[in-house]
Amino acid sequence: MPTLAGPPPLPVLGNLLDFGRDPLGFLDRVTQQYGCGVKIRIESARDTYIVTDPAQVEEVLVNTGRTFQKGYQRHPLMRLVLGNGLVTSEGEFWLRQRRLAQPAFHRARIASYGETMVRFADRQLQGWQDGQDLNLSEAMMHLTMEIITQTVFDVDLHGDPRAQNVSRAVNTVLDEYSHQMTSAVRALMERLPIHLPVPGEGRLRKAVQELDTLILALVAERRAEGRDHGDLLSMFLDARDEDGSGMTDAQLRDELVTLFLAGHETTANALTWSFFLLSQHPEVEAKLHAEVRGVLGNRLPTVQDLPRLPYTGQIVKEVLRLYPPVWWLSREPQADWRCDDVLVPAGAEVGISPWVMHRDAGFYPEPLAFQPERWTPEFEAQLPRYAYFPFGGGPRLCIGNNFALMEAALVMATIAQRFHVEVSEPQQVMADPSLTLRPKGGLRVRLHERKERS
After folding, report:
1. DSSP H helices in 231-344
2. Which residues participate in heme binding (predicted)?
């Protein structure tokens, strides 16, 4: 049986140092040099096989739950933060939770949140001024946190006394979780024969405990109240399985934390990258502004406007191609899996990188160019199905994908209608492959209010 080629690993450390120094560059180099199926060693106990063929990616993602599983439950940080929610659970338990959660993400239900997204975006813009400098990453993170808090918990961070505690706990959890999950120092310490406390893990545990306390208090309050607030928590509380049972407090906690953490950082990053790219491509921004102004005039967008804003949707698709929020995902075969002429052993890691595949010249002419116009129906029809998968795929497709796409388009239109965003030092902007793909150090911008508004 042939052995997959790959970069030579160091004793004990494998390829961890190269991967840890520059994950995206490392993935680009090894996949270009060795092709689909390159074998690397970034964990101490098993190899990782990187798959870049759309047909094989489809086989892996579509068969997750049958011949493949996520295997995330064995990761102590994922268990600590996400518990046994939709991202981490497996098998029959996952299937039950997905069935219980699915009605909350029905298109009609999601569309009802569009007004909240636009209203909160408009509220934030009321505080923006012509010539103002700000960190757009922070502004978008704050906005999407407000939106997800309102839509999940019916809590407005502007007026609720719990707002400061919620915001602080979530920010600490996100920052420390992202740092710990991508820390080469942590990975190295885990290989030591003795256990040593990892820097920052104590802060993470404390923040998780604080967030749990806040969420469980909200759940208890709602159970006692028994009223439908029109939010996702109400839907989860009302959800019933075939046997009439609902979610326990522990299950609610895991699903709510998963939604809360995954539901705002990914969209915030997508919006930040959108305005970075628009600032570097004035011709694209001009077409966006012409579309928005032609359809909306000076009124705010609504969900009903989205079909009449096709170029806005094309921009969102192209941003998610170049800067997919989830840049790396993995599965593990439950039995030996044949990848072409190579046998991948059971329990190994199969790595899949949207970052790599979305920038493959074999699928995307001029792959590094920002070209929203490429997303025509004809182009999409000929594109292999799993050459583009910003939200994963198969049965574990992100349950909130429609929420995220709608939020990105509505917020982008709301901002572009009123402001041009100038990036202060575009040459310094780098992608930081943390838990999600964010601009390293944030994105400093200067705001320019559009003068044609009456």
Report:
1. 232-238, 249-280, 282-296, 310-322
2. 398
Nearest to 270 by CA among 141, 115, 397, 91: 141
Calpha distance 317→302 (Å, rounded): 19
Binding residues, as ranges, are: 398
Which amino acid does the sequence have at 437? L
Beta-ladder partners of 50: 38, 351
pTM: 0.92
Domains for the chain: give ranges and CATH numbers.
1-82+327-357 (3.30.43.20), 83-326+358-449 (1.10.630.10)
340-362 b/e (C-beta count within 10 Å ≥ 16 → b): eeeebeeebbbbbbbbbbbbeee
Annotated binding site for heme: 398
- Residue 441 phi/psi, 5-degree rounding, is 80, 10
Taking Cα atoms as reference points, which of 317, 296, 320, 297 lies closest to residue 306?
Answer: 296
Measured CA to CA, the distance from residue 117 to residue 415 in angstroms comes to 12
8 A C-beta contact, residue 60 and residue 37:
no
Residue located via tokens 């064995």: 74
Q: How far is residue 444 CA from its own chain's centroid? A: 21
CA–chain centroid gap for 243, Å, is: 33
- Alpha carbon 216 to its chain centroid, in Å, reads 24
- Tens of each residue's pLDDT in the chain, 454 residues: 345 588 999 888 889 889 888 999 999 999 999 888 899 998 888 999 999 999 999 999 999 888 999 988 778 888 888 999 999 999 999 999 998 888 888 888 888 899 999 999 999 999 999 999 999 999 999 999 999 989 988 888 776 776 677 777 877 888 787 777 666 666 666 666 666 667 778 888 888 998 899 889 989 999 999 888 888 899 899 988 888 888 999 999 999 988 888 888 899 999 999 999 999 999 999 999 999 999 999 999 999 999 999 999 999 999 999 999 999 999 999 999 988 777 899 999 999 999 999 999 999 999 999 999 999 999 999 999 999 999 999 999 999 999 999 999 999 999 999 999 999 999 999 999 988 899 999 999 999 999 865 4
